[in-house]
Amino acid sequence: MARIIMGIESSCDETGVGLVAAHDDGTVELLADEVASSVEQHARFGGVVPEIASRAHLEAMVPTTRRAFDAAGLSMSDVDAVAVTAGPGLAGALLVGVSAAKAYAAALDVPLYGVNHLAGHIAVDALQHGPLPTPCLALLVSGGHTQLLRVDDIAGAITEIGSTVDDAAGEAYDKVARLLDLPYPGGPPIDKAARDGDPHAIAFPRGMTGPRDAPFDFSFSGLKTAVARWVESAQGRGEQVPVADVAASFQEAVADVLTAKAVRAATEAGIGTLVVSGGVAANSRLSALARERCAEAGIELRIPRPRLCTDNGAMIAALGAHVAAAGHKPSSLDLSANPGLPVDTVLV
Amino acid sequence: MLILALDTATPAVTAGIVRLTGPAGTAASTDTASAGTVSSDTTSAGTTAVAGGAVPVVEQVAARVTVDPRAHGELLTPHVLDAVADAGITLADLGAVAVGVGPGPYTGLRAGLVTGAALAHSLGVPAYPVCTLDAIAAGPGGPALVVTDARRREVYWATYDAEGTRTDGPHVGSRADVPEPAGRLADHEQPSPVGIVRAVAADVLAAREPGPLTPLYLRRPHAAEPAARKRVTA
Ligand SMILES: [Zn+2]
């Protein structure tokens, strides 16, 4: 008998409710994935405003849940467990999802699993590509995170190998987009503009790649400043800024560092599978370069489809399914959200 | 009818089970759901009205209240389950949920609202919004001024006439702008489960479709549009 797991996500600006079926053979099947986003309400502020996000989560939580059950053709009484993002994320935003999850678990009299958002980004790949081989290496890239993680057990053993020392990759995209008068969030418009540009037109710096730098950490702050300097000096000379070339060259610098470090980490550790996930994983240059370099190094590359890469409830349901199948003890109903939840804590 | 009353708009985390019995002949008066004995808890606001009269009877069956402004998200659902257990009932015995919608400092307020909404959704019962200040005013009768903490050196306030009808507010502002009380002053009190249900008793008994559980924020979100970008080169 398949077990139905409901997943709730509210760590940033997407209210997500997902439903999955955990089958006896270890496969996890996607049944529903409903998301309500407040991204448009944040656009004019150039970044996520926590209070606006929290207000939007409260409004969207029950309607999004209703839509998920309608889409799956299930009733609430079919649910066998509820999983929720316990952290990391915005405190006020997390609280809405955690409070809702507790109420649903209590009313339905099923176990509650408060789980790690970052591990959810990895677990979601099982919905598309089947059970995750372990160990595997995961590269998480989004507006909020840039991390290299070693996964020995998705339900409990995740170790950070490296992370950004300043901006997340997605943040750098947002800032460069603003510099080029492109809309927020910056990922999709830069990707689009870059299609007509020359990725080798401008040699932007590759951060943290010196011999004395931490081999698997990232830095995007210097790159962002370099792009700003380049654009300002072109403007100072009265020249038209070649937006396509700047976008393509910036994107090349980001994709180059991310994929080089991920492939090197996998090769050094003798790990045969790389999972690339998070909102920036949808970037066309990042996925193309990852495919190229993984093929050269003989590494299997798994990138979930874009819809699964961005924040959603299905990823939390998928992780909940793995945690429940591993027989871990459910969370207590006095669980609190933890905005700074460390990546090695999969279940709270 | 048994009603779950919730409020997280003040420093208190409040969950209570309240029995609402309408005047003879109304739907709620024929409710036969049995529950544990009525608590003699003296914290319940006001006494019950005369049974069989024209006024509904509102009785507290069980309540769990903790005053801790940082524990709303953590304690509310455990309090609900404990109150249900104390009442000797199950969640399935509830006929409605009544939720304080503030005004209140936002993070805790949202915990109560989303908990009430999710419980009502999964139990298939209506969720009634209650202005938290109305719930505090409900009970003793007579004109009243209700004042609660809004943080940032401000207060939320509203005034009520002798019938308990709100005459002004809810507002948010500095203490200096709050009028002199014309009768009872409820200063930084918390709503009781009985007060919450009393404030919506008429709507519940008339089986009126509840409005949405919309929080009374009274303030716009704190957010600034970015200023012109600073140059990195001199
Ligand atoms: Zn994320």
TrEMBL record, chain A:
Domain (Gcp-like) ranges: 29-317
UniProt cofactor note: Binds 1 Fe(2+) ion per subunit.
EC number: 2.3.1.234
Residues that bind Fe cation: H117, H121, D311
Catalysed reactions listed for this entry: L-threonylcarbamoyladenylate + adenosine(37) in tRNA = N(6)-L-threonylcarbamoyladenosine(37) in tRNA + AMP + H(+)
Residues the record lists as binding substrate: L140, V141, S142, G143, G144, D174, G187, D191, N283
UniProt-annotated location(s): Cytoplasm
Keyword terms: Acyltransferase, Cytoplasm, Iron, Metal-binding, Transferase, tRNA processing
GO molecular function: iron ion binding; tRNA N(6)-L-threonylcarbamoyladenine synthase activity
CC cofactor: Fe(2+)
PANTHER family associated with the record: TRNA N6-ADENOSINE THREONYLCARBAMOYLTRANSFERASE (PTHR11735), TRNA N6-ADENOSINE THREONYLCARBAMOYLTRANSFERASE, MITOCHONDRIAL (PTHR11735:SF6)
Name by which UniProt lists this protein: tRNA N6-adenosine threonylcarbamoyltransferase
UniProt source species: Prauserella sediminis
TrEMBL record, chain B:
Start and end residues of each Gcp-like domain: 70-168
Keywords: Acyltransferase, Transferase
EC number: 2.3.1.234
Region Disordered, annotated ranges: 164-190
Full protein name: tRNA (Adenosine(37)-N6)-threonylcarbamoyltransferase complex dimerization subunit type 1 TsaB
NCBIfam families registered for this protein in UniProt: T6A_YeaZ
InterPro entries, sorted: ATPase_NBD (IPR043129), Gcp-like_dom (IPR000905), T6A_TsaB (IPR022496)
